[in-house]
Each structure stands twice: as C-alpha cells, then as structure tokens.
Write a structure and sequence with these properties.
The chain has helices at 12-19, 25-28, 113-118, 124-144, 156-160, and strands at 2-8, 32-38, 48-55, 58-70, 74-81, 86-96, 102-110. The protein is an alpha+beta fold. A seven-stranded antiparallel beta sheet has the order 1-7-6-5-4-3-2. Strand 3 (48-55) and strand 4 (58-70) form a beta hairpin.
C-alpha cells in the first residue's frame, strides 16, 4: 500500500475541482497517457472515465470508476489497467487548512488478487514515488493552473509548470 501526503496552497474546493475534472487526470496522474472520454456526471458514484495508461509500446486502455465520494473532502476510485497492472483502490482525502490551503492524502492499494502480484511490498517503493510525483503535479494544477475540460487540455503554462 502507498500512502502519500502533500500540502497544497489552494482551497479544498479548488483541489476537489481538479479531482472532479476527469480530463485533468491525464495531466497529473503519472502513467496516465490520455483520457479518452468521461461520463458527464463524473465524479458521481458509479461514473467513469476511460483512459490509456502505460509507456512506450506498452499501453493499456481501461477505465477508472468512482466508488464513493464526499465533496470536497473525499474521492474513492477504482483504477483499472488490466491485464497488465490490474486494479487499484485509490482514495483521495482533502483536509482544509484554513481558506486557502489543503492537506491532501493519496492512498493506493491493490484491489484484486492478481493486482497484489504487481502491487506488492517489493513494488510499493515505486508506487510511492509515482504517487508522490502525481501529488506534486496535482499541486501545480490546483495552485497555478486550470484543470483540463471536456473540450481540451489546460493551458500550456499550467501543463508546463
């Protein structure tokens, strides 16, 4: 299991706005190459976005589904990258720290038995590093950029920070 935290100098509502934009996941989640489409009601429970993940010639199309949520404080996702990486439960916790700051926690653990073969104690340090970089990217989007929208990616300035 990976457990990462970061302080973001933006309101909990702003952080959750980025988490609520399915098309922004391609900008901040390490390994997410492209968001293909998203249910219009995302991030409602049961809604999904479809993505392509991977690197180089190894790419997988699958989807991420919202398991539960309590905006702007918690979003629980089931991220799938089958059969290559399996499935992971990802919980995003956003704790307000005043009006313009939030403490964000990202918890990821294997969701299925086959996933436990990939996400195991030996791979946990790599998952931890990947999630630390993902949170740094989320921080940049929440503090300085605009999340992507269904009509296109965020500004080049936001994506390049």
């Amino acid at each position: 299991m990976s457990h990462n935290t970061i302080v973001i100098e933006a309101s909990a509502e702003r952080v959750f706005a980025v988490l609520s934009d399915a098309f922004a996941y391609g900008q901040w989640v390490v390994g997410s190459e492209t968001i293909l489409d998203a249910d219009p009601e995302f991030p409602a429970t049961g809604s999904r976005f479809r993505h392509r993940v991977g690197s180089g010639p190894v790419k997988v199309r699958d989807y991420t589904e919202v398991v539960d949520g309590n905006p702007p404080y918690r979003l629980e996702l089931l991220a799938r990258a089958r059969p290559l990486l399996g499935s992971a439960h990802v919980t995003m916790l956003v704790e307000p720290r005043g009006e313009a700051s939030a403490f964000v926690t990202m918890i990821e653990h294997a969701a299925t038995l086959p996933s436990r073969l990939v996400l195991n104690p030996l791979s946990d340090p790599l998952v931890h590093l990947r999630n630390a970089e993902s949170l740094r990217r989320l921080k940049r989007l929440a503090e300085h950029g605009e999340a992507a929208t269904a009509t296109g990616p965020a500004s080049a300035a936001a994506a390049g920070r």
